[in-house]
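User: For my dataset I need records formatted as: sequence, then structure tokens, nothing else. Please produce one.
Assistant:
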Amino acid sequence: MMAAATNIADNRVAEVTAKERVFGQLADAISQALPTATHFTLTVSGENSQFTRFNRAQVRQTGQVSDGSLTLTVMLCDRTASGTVPFIGDFDTDWPLIKTTLAELQAMVPQLPVDPFVVLPTGAATSRTVNQGKILAAHELATTLLSPVQNLDFTGIYAGGLIFRGYADSAGQRHWFETTNYSLDFSLFDSQNRAVKGTVAGNQWQQPHFLDQINQAKHQLALLARPAKTIDRGQYRTYLAPAAVAELLPMFSWGGVGEADLQQGNSAFGLLRQGQRQLSPKFTLRENFAQANIPRFNNSGEVAPLQLPIIERGQLVNSLVSSRSAKEYKIPSNYASRNEHLRAPEILTGTLAREQILARLDRGLYLSNLHYLNWSDHPNGRVTGMTRYACFWIENGEIVAPIENLRFDESLYHCFGDGLMDLTDFQATMPTIDTYDQRSLGDSRVPGILVEGFTYTL
């Protein structure tokens, strides 16, 4: 089975290598066509992916997507203009499209207002990362995934194949990133339409790991068959599994640890920077590209540090600073993306062993997943959202009953601060599985957390 997968993966790597060559040719042609005083950046984003959707343990939809786009930005006298065109991967097809776009941008850019914080291409950095995975071939998906779940209401979507990103500019910088990977986002349903969610992802298909995830979901599904317990509003000791913690992490990016948000007063962590609020010394958050499934280079061709501490032992030691913010606020850049979001987040582990989770929780709530998160009090870092899927009431360190969905409203300063009892001594890698417009890259590495007095409002 794996030999077939290897051949398909290798064929796709060869195809993307050809696209990489065409991308370089396009960048060279743009350099020759532009006057010396004009700067440019060129980025490419594309994929060759297999998508298969399952419902009631049957294939309901399947197909392959091969797609790509080029974005050209022209900069002259602190003015910028950008345009996007499809990327085919054939120079004779792609160059006329880019050439036309280049002419349009050259005519447009002198008429645009000055951008005082424009970041011009500098340096001569180059990089090339190729991760050749071994994933399932398209013809293997149905048999491999559905055989173990024939008697279950198994629903989900598989997305797998090759993703590539590239960057080039007028300064001569060149970056290329490609990876072959997959994700399977699935749910098991019972006859009462209650569900348990699971995700497997990576660049090496591991059937034992998939079977283990299915068995864990089946066990939780059996627990959901017990009569549900109604939970009154209030504060309860709560364990948030890694998948639930991963849902909280985007709040650190959304008006969080970005320098522009901090400078403009739009950050939930302004009080932390000012020393008016504290996080727990048990809590450490960092950017860690060492194992991340995402390029280190950003849309300006800058390469982020391999590791960057953000919150260390409860203290905000670094914000995410793009070169644009660095220019505006006159501080050093750490080559964050322009939107200053976390790209390779990792929360370090604690001391709570897996087999001790229920005993330490003792009496309270076990949350497998969260969703619909939003700020309820942004300046004070307060988040609201809903529990989801397999969540349980715990008594005397034992699972007693599933719960109906609850709304929570809690501050990050509490659940990662004075309410943080411990973090697990293990992490889970939670992939970014968005497929809007294109398959997303990236993941987060997070432990579970045990919180005292987590607040539920209804």
